Amino acid sequence: MAQLSDLPKDLIEIILEYPTDVVDLYNYRHEISLDLKLDCASCVTTKRKSCENSAKLTPPSSSGRGIKRMKHNCREVSLELKLGFDPWVIKKTIQTSDVGDLAKLLLAAGLVEQHILPMWDAETIEKIQDGVGVVVWDSDTKSEHQMDFKQWKSGSYVLIKQWKNEFVIRRKLKRGDEVGLYWDQINSRFNFSVLKQL
Protein backbone atom coordinates (compact mmCIF):
# COMPACT_ATOMS: atom_id res chain seq x y z
CA MET A 1 0.00 0.00 0.00
CA ALA A 2 1.17 3.52 -0.73
CA GLN A 3 0.31 6.96 0.55
CA LEU A 4 0.16 10.20 -1.39
CA SER A 5 3.80 10.91 -0.62
CA ASP A 6 4.77 7.60 -2.24
CA LEU A 7 3.20 8.49 -5.60
CA PRO A 8 5.34 9.60 -8.56
CA LYS A 9 6.18 13.31 -8.67
CA ASP A 10 4.27 13.85 -11.93
CA LEU A 11 1.09 12.47 -10.41
CA ILE A 12 1.47 14.58 -7.27
CA GLU A 13 1.87 17.72 -9.40
CA ILE A 14 -1.35 16.89 -11.27
CA ILE A 15 -3.19 16.31 -8.00
CA LEU A 16 -1.92 19.61 -6.60
CA GLU A 17 -3.35 21.45 -9.62
CA TYR A 18 -6.88 20.41 -8.61
CA PRO A 19 -8.96 22.60 -6.29
CA THR A 20 -8.14 22.18 -2.61
CA ASP A 21 -11.30 20.23 -1.83
CA VAL A 22 -10.13 17.49 -4.23
CA VAL A 23 -6.64 17.50 -2.72
CA ASP A 24 -8.15 17.28 0.76
CA LEU A 25 -9.54 13.89 -0.19
CA TYR A 26 -5.95 12.68 -0.49
CA ASN A 27 -4.86 14.22 2.79
CA TYR A 28 -6.90 11.75 4.79
CA ARG A 29 -5.09 8.71 6.09
CA HIS A 30 -6.60 6.51 3.35
CA GLU A 31 -4.01 4.37 1.68
CA ILE A 32 -3.87 3.95 -2.08
CA SER A 33 -3.08 0.49 -3.41
CA LEU A 34 -0.64 0.36 -6.29
CA ASP A 35 -0.78 -3.45 -6.40
CA LEU A 36 -2.42 -5.21 -9.31
CA LYS A 37 -4.36 -8.24 -8.17
CA LEU A 38 -6.04 -10.63 -10.53
CA ASP A 39 -7.72 -12.71 -7.85
CA CYS A 40 -8.73 -12.42 -4.25
CA ALA A 41 -8.33 -15.63 -2.27
CA SER A 42 -11.13 -14.67 0.12
CA CYS A 43 -13.52 -14.09 -2.78
CA VAL A 44 -13.69 -17.66 -4.10
CA THR A 45 -17.28 -18.36 -5.04
CA THR A 46 -19.24 -21.47 -4.20
CA LYS A 47 -19.53 -22.27 -7.91
CA ARG A 48 -15.76 -22.06 -8.31
CA LYS A 49 -15.19 -24.30 -5.28
CA SER A 50 -17.59 -26.90 -6.64
CA CYS A 51 -15.89 -26.78 -10.04
CA GLU A 52 -12.46 -27.17 -8.48
CA ASN A 53 -13.70 -30.10 -6.40
CA SER A 54 -15.21 -31.78 -9.45
CA ALA A 55 -11.93 -31.24 -11.27
CA LYS A 56 -10.17 -33.25 -8.61
CA LEU A 57 -12.78 -36.01 -8.71
CA THR A 58 -13.37 -36.25 -12.46
CA PRO A 59 -10.58 -37.94 -14.40
CA PRO A 60 -9.82 -36.25 -17.73
CA SER A 61 -10.74 -38.01 -20.93
CA SER A 62 -7.94 -39.44 -23.04
CA SER A 63 -8.38 -36.67 -25.61
CA GLY A 64 -8.27 -33.89 -23.02
CA ARG A 65 -11.60 -32.50 -24.19
CA GLY A 66 -13.15 -33.14 -20.78
CA ILE A 67 -10.76 -30.73 -19.11
CA LYS A 68 -11.34 -28.02 -21.69
CA ARG A 69 -15.11 -28.37 -21.38
CA MET A 70 -14.96 -28.28 -17.57
CA LYS A 71 -12.83 -25.13 -17.54
CA HIS A 72 -15.10 -23.50 -20.10
CA ASN A 73 -18.18 -24.29 -18.01
CA CYS A 74 -16.69 -23.20 -14.67
CA ARG A 75 -15.08 -19.99 -15.78
CA GLU A 76 -17.56 -19.29 -18.58
CA VAL A 77 -14.58 -18.37 -20.72
CA SER A 78 -13.48 -20.20 -23.84
CA LEU A 79 -9.93 -21.49 -23.60
CA GLU A 80 -9.60 -21.98 -27.35
CA LEU A 81 -6.16 -20.81 -28.45
CA LYS A 82 -6.14 -18.30 -31.27
CA LEU A 83 -2.79 -17.16 -32.57
CA GLY A 84 -3.92 -13.96 -34.23
CA PHE A 85 -6.60 -12.23 -36.17
CA ASP A 86 -7.27 -13.73 -39.59
CA PRO A 87 -9.31 -11.29 -41.69
CA TRP A 88 -9.69 -13.70 -44.61
CA VAL A 89 -13.16 -14.96 -43.69
CA ILE A 90 -13.73 -16.37 -47.18
CA LYS A 91 -11.00 -18.78 -48.20
CA LYS A 92 -11.17 -20.54 -51.52
CA THR A 93 -9.00 -23.23 -53.04
CA ILE A 94 -8.93 -22.41 -56.73
CA GLN A 95 -10.66 -25.01 -58.91
CA THR A 96 -10.29 -25.61 -62.64
CA SER A 97 -13.61 -23.81 -63.20
CA ASP A 98 -12.22 -20.67 -61.49
CA VAL A 99 -9.30 -20.37 -63.90
CA GLY A 100 -11.04 -21.68 -67.02
CA ASP A 101 -12.65 -19.86 -69.91
CA LEU A 102 -15.79 -18.89 -67.95
CA ALA A 103 -13.70 -16.29 -66.07
CA LYS A 104 -15.39 -16.28 -62.66
CA LEU A 105 -14.53 -16.86 -59.03
CA LEU A 106 -17.24 -19.00 -57.46
CA LEU A 107 -17.79 -18.22 -53.75
CA ALA A 108 -19.58 -20.37 -51.17
CA ALA A 109 -23.10 -19.02 -50.58
CA GLY A 110 -23.00 -19.66 -46.83
CA LEU A 111 -19.81 -17.66 -46.35
CA VAL A 112 -21.06 -14.75 -48.46
CA GLU A 113 -24.37 -14.68 -46.60
CA GLN A 114 -22.59 -14.80 -43.25
CA HIS A 115 -19.69 -12.39 -43.81
CA ILE A 116 -20.55 -10.08 -46.74
CA LEU A 117 -24.28 -9.47 -47.10
CA PRO A 118 -24.86 -8.37 -43.48
CA MET A 119 -22.60 -5.38 -44.20
CA TRP A 120 -24.48 -4.34 -47.36
CA ASP A 121 -27.63 -2.25 -47.56
CA ALA A 122 -30.91 -3.77 -48.75
CA GLU A 123 -30.88 -1.83 -52.02
CA THR A 124 -27.51 -3.28 -53.07
CA ILE A 125 -28.53 -6.80 -52.04
CA GLU A 126 -31.64 -6.56 -54.26
CA LYS A 127 -29.42 -5.81 -57.28
CA ILE A 128 -27.05 -8.76 -56.81
CA GLN A 129 -28.93 -11.05 -59.21
CA ASP A 130 -28.34 -8.54 -61.99
CA GLY A 131 -24.77 -7.91 -60.89
CA VAL A 132 -23.32 -5.17 -58.70
CA GLY A 133 -20.14 -3.30 -59.55
CA VAL A 134 -17.55 -3.74 -56.79
CA VAL A 135 -13.96 -2.77 -56.18
CA VAL A 136 -11.51 -5.55 -55.37
CA TRP A 137 -8.32 -4.43 -53.65
CA ASP A 138 -5.39 -6.79 -54.18
CA SER A 139 -3.65 -6.36 -50.86
CA ASP A 140 -0.55 -8.24 -52.08
CA THR A 141 0.15 -5.93 -55.03
CA LYS A 142 -1.63 -2.84 -53.65
CA SER A 143 -3.78 -2.53 -56.77
CA GLU A 144 -7.47 -1.85 -57.30
CA HIS A 145 -9.68 -3.71 -59.78
CA GLN A 146 -13.27 -3.16 -60.96
CA MET A 147 -15.39 -6.30 -61.07
CA ASP A 148 -19.01 -7.42 -60.85
CA PHE A 149 -20.43 -9.40 -57.95
CA LYS A 150 -23.43 -11.50 -58.87
CA GLN A 151 -25.74 -14.17 -57.50
CA TRP A 152 -26.69 -16.88 -59.94
CA LYS A 153 -30.18 -18.41 -60.03
CA SER A 154 -28.66 -21.50 -58.38
CA GLY A 155 -27.88 -19.33 -55.33
CA SER A 156 -24.11 -19.31 -55.87
CA TYR A 157 -22.17 -16.04 -55.74
CA VAL A 158 -19.48 -15.13 -58.25
CA LEU A 159 -16.96 -12.40 -58.97
CA ILE A 160 -16.91 -11.81 -62.73
CA LYS A 161 -15.78 -9.25 -65.31
CA GLN A 162 -12.02 -9.00 -65.50
CA TRP A 163 -11.49 -11.92 -63.07
CA LYS A 164 -9.46 -13.82 -65.65
CA ASN A 165 -7.29 -10.88 -66.80
CA GLU A 166 -6.87 -9.08 -63.49
CA PHE A 167 -6.35 -12.08 -61.24
CA VAL A 168 -5.92 -15.40 -63.04
CA ILE A 169 -3.43 -14.14 -65.65
CA ARG A 170 -1.85 -11.23 -63.77
CA ARG A 171 -1.40 -13.19 -60.51
CA LYS A 172 -0.68 -16.48 -62.33
CA LEU A 173 -3.37 -18.34 -60.41
CA LYS A 174 -3.82 -22.04 -61.00
CA ARG A 175 -5.79 -24.96 -59.65
CA GLY A 176 -4.85 -25.68 -56.03
CA ASP A 177 -3.85 -22.12 -55.08
CA GLU A 178 -5.67 -20.66 -52.09
CA VAL A 179 -7.08 -17.14 -52.07
CA GLY A 180 -8.76 -15.14 -49.33
CA LEU A 181 -11.40 -12.42 -49.40
CA TYR A 182 -13.24 -10.23 -46.96
CA TRP A 183 -15.46 -7.18 -47.21
CA ASP A 184 -13.69 -4.01 -46.09
CA GLN A 185 -16.62 -2.02 -44.78
CA ILE A 186 -14.60 1.16 -44.19
CA ASN A 187 -13.48 1.36 -47.83
CA SER A 188 -16.56 -0.40 -49.31
CA ARG A 189 -14.56 -2.98 -51.24
CA PHE A 190 -13.44 -6.58 -51.26
CA ASN A 191 -9.92 -7.16 -50.04
CA PHE A 192 -8.16 -10.04 -51.81
CA SER A 193 -4.97 -11.97 -51.15
CA VAL A 194 -3.26 -15.05 -52.51
CA LEU A 195 -2.78 -17.07 -49.33
CA LYS A 196 -1.00 -20.05 -50.85
CA GLN A 197 0.39 -20.51 -54.33
CA LEU A 198 1.64 -23.85 -55.64
UniProtKB/TrEMBL annotation:
This is TF-B3 domain-containing protein. Its main location: nucleus. It comes from the Eukaryota. PANTHER family: B3 DOMAIN PROTEIN, TRANSCRIPTION FACTOR B3-DOMAIN FAMILY-RELATED. InterPro entries: B3_DNA-bd, B3_domain, DNA-bd_pseudobarrel_sf. GO terms for molecular function: DNA binding. It is found in: Nucleus. It comes from Carpinus fangiana. CDD domains: B3_DNA. Keywords: DNA-binding, Nucleus, Transcription, Transcription regulation. GO terms for cellular component: nucleus. The keyword Nucleus applies.
